[in-house]
User: Fold Oxidoreductase from Arsenicibacter rosenii.
Amino acid sequence: MEANDKLDRIIEARMKLKSRFDQKMANTPSLADDAPRGKGPTNRHGMPQVPVGQTVTAKWPVLDLGYQPHIPLDKWQLSVDGEVEAPIRLKWEDFMALPQVEDTSDFHCVTTWSRLDVPWVGVRFMDLAALVMPKASATHVMCYGFDGYSTNISLEEALKPDVLLVHTADGQPLTREHGGPLRMITPQLYAWKGAKWIKRIEFLNGNRLGFWEERGYSNTAYPWRNDRYS
Ligand SMILES: Nc1nc2c(c(=O)[nH]1)N[C@H]1C(S)=C(S)[C@@H](COP(=O)(O)O)O[C@H]1N2
Ligand SMILES: [Mo]
Assistant:
């Protein structure tokens, strides 16, 4: 009964959030561009499978800041705070008790490789957002990694249904080098928008630049516009 109430509340909050951002989301380039650049069959959100300037790789290269933090599950915590009604701090068990989804999506790195059809398991960003209830003033989020990394993303991008916080990839627990125990993925944006070793999601009432964005990477990061650097 209590679990059902909780689920109902999440669903209600999620529907509210969704309706707030539906129009903005539908207008984002990866859903709305009529001349997207790339090649291959059309993917599920209507874009050519391989974005302009990308090469498909079967390998999964590793990109980091030269340091791969080790976070034991019993020490792991995720804070979701900022411009929200109900900030939370989740322990691993709390996170794993949230609705888990499986999804398969593509991973496009700004350094020109793309890894297609990666099977993921995790929690939708949208569901996590519904839990904390972003204030009307919230427009963006900053995601922080345990390694000091940060990256900013608009809510109309973050709330897309393929944006997940994942703990499993290719049927295996996410390895430390790829951001385990938990990372974010942003299949409709370049992959630097997904923080590895994620520890905090801060809702913002305006845009702010993350680690690479401060160093000349694009704010928006649209793969089908070759939108790499600003
Ligand atoms: N915490 C953290 N997240 C990060 C990075 C990082 O250095 N630290 N690098 C970003 C970049 S530039 C890319 S392309 C992807 C790479 O993910 P991968 O190493 O699993 O391929 O993670 C992104 N997320
Ligand atoms: Mo990257």
About this structure: The first helix runs from residue 2 to 26. The chain has a mean pLDDT of 96. The first strand starts at residue 38 and ends at 42. Helices lie at 2-26, 29-32, 92-96, 125-132, 155-158, 211-214.
